[in-house]
Design brief:
2 helices; 17% helix; 30% strand; single chain; alpha+beta
């Protein structure tokens, strides 16, 4: 699934992606959605036990800066405003 397809299918969500390809700027080109949620905290909880180096976290909604957090570089403070449960695709 391309990143554009992921953004279209999961709008306004934090998405945990096992990527299959990055571009030269280390931006996810395509991959498989592992989990999605409007809550960054829920995604972080789902991420914690994973041990795959091909994981990225992407936000698909308003305010999307185009940044993708490749693991292990996702140690930014999550926004705790929405604490809904993680959803499996």
């Amino acid at each position: 699934m391309t990143l554009e397809e992921i953004k279209h299918q999961y709008p306004n969500q934090w998405v945990l992606i096992e990527f299959t390809r990055l571009d030269d700027d280390l931006i996810v080109v395509d991959g498989k959605v592992i989990a999605h949620s409007p809550s960054r905290i829920a995604i972080d909880k789902k991420l914690a036990p994973l041990r795959n180096e091909r994981i990225a976290v992407e936000f698909t909604g308003e305010g999307d800066t185009g940044e993708t957090y490749l693991i292990p570089a996702i140690m930014k403070e999550p926004n705790g405003s929405n604490r809904s449960e993680v959803q499996q695709p």
